[in-house]
Amino acid sequence: MPLLKTVSPETASGELAALYDQMKTAFGGVPNALSIWSESPLLLKQQFEFIGYYMQHPRLSGALLATIRLLVSVDTQCIYCVEFNAGMLINMMGWTPEQVAATKTDPSAAKLSLREKNLLIWVLNTVKDANKVTADELDTLRDQDWSDQDILEALNHGARMVAGDIILNAFKVTRD
Fold it and tell me: What domains are defined for the chain?
């Protein structure tokens, strides 16, 4: 039971009920990680749209995005998200548990292309210390065929993961 009051799908009404119905269609239910936002339908809608956008991203692969989420969550110690994204990599992306474990220890061991690993490591470093970013780093990513939009959206994904992890950790959200 989270520390923050949530509205259950059974008692939701209005805009919240409509959002929950969309989530049930997309996910088969309303995950605890989303129901924590139920006290603010506007924030819940933004979170759901954020997830939907990245699920259909045209250039950032599902494996890259799940690895960003996994490793950001390792650093923030968000067990919910570590377990969820490890499960996603194993069950949806075909990684082995050993590959996930190796990636947690060394991001360069991720089962990703070299260019994806480079973007991953840049995102992880930038989330830890954004003040160290250099123009040369961005040029290197551009030379690997990452657009400025790709770079921005990958970093946005990692940075928003930090915020989401803080919310889940603070309110003690447990895995479904």
Answer: 14-55 (no CATH), 62-170 (1.20.1290.10)
How far apart CA 9 and CA 161 sit, in angstroms, is 24
Amino acid code (one letter) for 29: G
C-alpha closest to that of 20 among 2, 3, 37? 37
Handedness of CA 4, 9, 157, 95 (dihedral sign): positive
What span, in angstroms and rounded, lies between the C-alpha atoms of 147 and 135?
14
Question: What DSSP designation does 59 have?
Answer: S
**Residue type at position 70:** L
Query: Do 65 and 158 meet the contact criterion of CB atoms below 8 Å apart?
Result: no
Q: Whole-prediction pTM value?
A: 0.93
Those residues with Cβ within 8 angstroms of residue 93's Cβ, 6 or more apart along the chain or in another chain: 62, 63, 66, 111
Q: Which residue is associated with the tokens 């377990």?
A: 83
Cβ atoms 115, 96 nearer than 8 A: no
DSSP state of 130: G
Listed residue (22, 97, 33, 104) closest to 68, CA to CA? 104
Q: pLDDT for 101-136, tens place per residue?
A: 999 999 999 999 999 999 999 999 999 999 999 999
